[in-house]
Amino acid sequence: MTTAPDYSEGIDPERAMKYALQRWFGDRTEIVEGVLNHVTPSWDHENAAEEIRDQIKPRVRELGCVTGSGNLDLPGSANWYVPDLAVAPKEPAKGGGALLPDQTLLIVEVTSESDAETDRVVKRKRYAEYGAPLYLLVDRLDKTVTLFSGPGRLGYTEVDGPHPFGETVRLPEPFGIDLDTSGL
After folding, report:
1. How confident is the model at residue 8 (pLDDT cuts 50, 70, 90)?
2. What domains does the chain contain, in order, with CATH numbers?
3. What would the pLDDT profile of 142-174 be if each residue is shown by its tens digit?
C-alpha cells in the first residue's frame, strides 16, 4: 500500500501523481516517461512470465526471496513500473509500498506488440540507471531472450544474447541456474 503524501512542506508533484495513480487506476497501471499505461497482458504473455517463474521458484525460495509483479518506483522521474516478474528479498517486499529497482535481484519484462520498444529501450535504460542488477528481456516478437547485467547510469555494460527461444540462458549468481526457453 502506498503511503499518503505528506504536504507539510508543500506539494511534491511527483509523489502526488504516483499516489493518485495507485488510488485511482489500481495496480496494473504504469507511468512510462510521464505517460499512463494500463497493463493488460494476453495469456501468451502471462504464460511466458509463468514459465520463468516456475523455473526460478526453487532457487528464489533458497535465497529467501519472493517473486511478483509489484510496483517499482523510479524516484526523481515520472516513471512507475509494473514489471512482468521481479525477484526481491522478502524484507523490503514486506514494506507494503513500491520497491526501487536496486532492491530487486532480477527484473523480467515480456514484450507485447503494444510495448515492445518500451521494454527493449526505455525500461532497459531506466532499470540500469536505477541499479537493477539483472534485466531479462523476453522478446516474444523476435522470439529471443536477452540478459542484461552490470547496471550503470548509461545503461547495462554486459549483454548475454539475444538467444533464440529454445536455447538455454544462464542466470548468473545469486541464481546460478539455466533457463529453458523452449516453452516461451
Report:
1. low
2. 13-180 (3.90.1570.10)
3. 999 999 999 999 999 999 999 999 999 999 999
Residue tagged 509523489 (cell numbers): 15
Query: Which comes out higher in pLDDT, residue 94 or 63?
Result: 63
The set of residues, in sequence order, having a beta carbon less than 8 Å from that of 90 and lying 6+ positions away, is: 64, 65, 66
